[in-house]
């Protein structure tokens, strides 16, 4: 992963960490249930967006290189693995 993308992913994860800490604080302070669910949904969406970005990078770099170098089976297996993981959501 190139440095700029690494930096972008790290920043995104720090934002998610802040959201989770905020959610924890809300629970500790006895926040309204609907507000907790709203914040929890935002955290899940942020994580899903992070996963999408990592997957896009993987497909555009590693899988493309595997295909170019003749590792078609390995590339296909990785795509299927990610697909199966996404279905578990």
UniProtKB/TrEMBL annotation:
Q: Which species is the source of this protein?
A: Candidatus Uhrbacteria bacterium RIFCSPLOWO2_01_FULL_55_36
What name has this protein been given in UniProt? Transcriptional regulator
What terms describe the molecular function in GO for this protein? DNA binding; metal ion binding
Instruction: Give the top-rank taxon of the lineage listed in the UniProt record for this protein.
Output: Bacteria
Q: Which InterPro entries match?
A: Metal_Tscrpt_repr, Metal_Tscrpt_repr_sf
Tell me, which GO biological process terms does this entry list?
A: negative regulation of DNA-templated transcription
Please list the coiled coil stretches. none
